[in-house]
Specification:
8 helices; alpha+beta; 231 residues; disordered N terminus
């Protein structure tokens, strides 16, 4: 039994219709509290009037007060990141036309301080007219900025690692090399200069010179002069 109190302390019994309405109101408040405490914000779109009813935290999630955002589709779309707007609106059109069972996208929205937050936007048309046109849709917003930043950071790291691995070329295995001319035989049986073989399989660059022993053997006069100049 549900009773309503009066200022004079008396109570009166609610009739069945009033009781049902009161219970619906209480359940609606409880549901809204549960949704908001779970980190979700909700929206309810009326296609006939163009009005969108939103929970308070739909706006405060982005740093705005509810009255600062128009209660229509434009109030939402103008906050979407320009790079995301096309494919978000495309997803909306596909669902409203009945091509997809629901609307679910991740996109960025502008906060009051000019920054961007990633939002998981889920929605569904729950009522259509006889021609299949949407009449009412409901949905939720969830702030997923932290998760997206981790995903983006991970993707960038993987990309850098993949590029680094592509740049690394390591010579492995037994490499046949001529003991006289020092040419190397490749996997096709072609004998190549040592420099050519290594350059094709690494990022190494070569500069040529002569070690002291070769200078002594090939150019003894030059070697003697160098020795004299350094002593």
């Amino acid at each position: 039994m549900v009773r309503v109190g009066h200022e004079d302390g008396n109570t009166r019994r609610l009739n069945p219709d009033e009781k049902a309405s009161k219970e619906i109101q209480i359940n609606s408040i409880d549901l809204e509290i549960i949704i908001e405490n779970s980190g979700l914000a909700w929206w309810d779109q009326n296609f006939s009037t163009g009005k969108i009813t939103r929970s308070k935290n739909w706006s405060t999630m982005l740093g705005y007060e509810p009255q600062e955002i128009n209660a229509d589709i434009e109030g939402w779309s103008q906050l979407i990141h320009p790079d995301d707007r096309f494919w978000v609106e495309q997803a909306v059109r596909k669902h409203e036309s009945g091509q997809t069972p629901l609307f679910e996208v991740e996109h960025r929205m502008r906060t009051k301080d000019g920054k961007w937050k990633w939002i998981l936007n889920w929605g569904k048309v729950i009522e259509r007219d006889v021609n299949g046109k949407p009449v009412r849709a409901v949905g939720t917003h969830m702030d997923i900025t932290c998760r997206k930043e981790i995903e983006i950071e991970k993707a960038v790291l993987i990309h850098k690692l993949e590029n680094a691995l592509k740049e690394i070329k390591i010579l492995r295995g037994i490499i046949p090399i001529c003991s006289h001319c020092k040419r190397i035989r490749d996997d096709k049986g072609i004998w190549m200069l040592l420099e050519s073989y290594i350059q094709e399989r690494s990022e190494a660059e070569f500069s040529h010179g002569m070690c002291p022993e070769c200078i002594k053997e090939q150019y003894p006069d030059l070697y003697a002069k160098i020795r004299l100049d350094t002593t």
